[in-house]
Amino acid sequence: MTHLIRRLLKMAAVVADPVLSPVAGPRILIYHQVGGGSARQMDVTPEVFRAHVAWLAEHARVIPFEQAVEGGHGETLEVAITFDDGYVDVYEHAFPLLRDLQMPFTLFLTTEPVETGTPLYPDGLPLRWEQVEEMVASGLVTIGAHTHRHVDLRPLAPDQVESELAASDELIEQRLGIRPRHFAYPWGYWSEGADGVVRRRYETAVLGRPGPVGPGTDRHRIPRIPVQAADGRVFFGPRVRGGLSLEDRVRALVSGYRGP
Predict the structure, then answer these.
(1) CATH of residue 92
(2) How many Cβ atoms from other residues are within 10 Å of residue 137's Cβ?
(3) To the nearest whole number, what is the mean pLDDT of the chain?
(4) 151 Cβ partners below 8 Å, 6+ apart?
(5) Fewer CB within 10 Å, N or C, the chain?
(6) Is the dihedral of CA 33, 46, 14, 29 positive or negative?
(7) Within 10 A of 93 (CB to CB), how many other CB atoms are there?
């Protein structure tokens, strides 16, 4: 029944997209795991991911995140790929394919799991620093920050936010020699209390809800389109083209999130 309801909601969202929230400009996609073996919607199979990449190769131009946030150029459908958290399956399944096709992507890294080897989820094994180094050395991967412990920033005071982000940034700089310039809010939940700290530390910040990206987009409230396992092959194209905004609104209503 859950599968049927989800499919019906996706079908309704395809119809509603042109009315509710037409996506103009580049699309920024969120992935998490590829072949992690969990049952979570954030975990797509390697076969489905290959189908997604094949669709992008045929119908779009994959561009770097930094170019996408500027609003893109031309009439060709432009897409930026991002991954959140930092799971080892991204290195094992996604990176080799994207490297072979020379498709850039951004990895928003949660640093505590990478540093300690402790999974963020029981079946979400983290990357190792040497794997991250190898991906960065390819010239295709940009590293962004995603906090140290993957905590919800909304209940934290500004000094607690500062401490959480500083721990992340310092580890990334120590291990990779990179000072992250881009940030992803955990779960895509924007925080009014964290906003000032985030703006001071990073050039951009991304959220977890679909929407247009253009020259007028707030560079610290950049929308992204979440890709789900249930999108499969059928709904991926509509997801990229339109965002399936209705589905996201329903999900936000259920979760209680009322932010941007």
Answers:
(1) 3.20.20.370
(2) 10
(3) 88
(4) 164, 186
(5) N
(6) positive
(7) 21
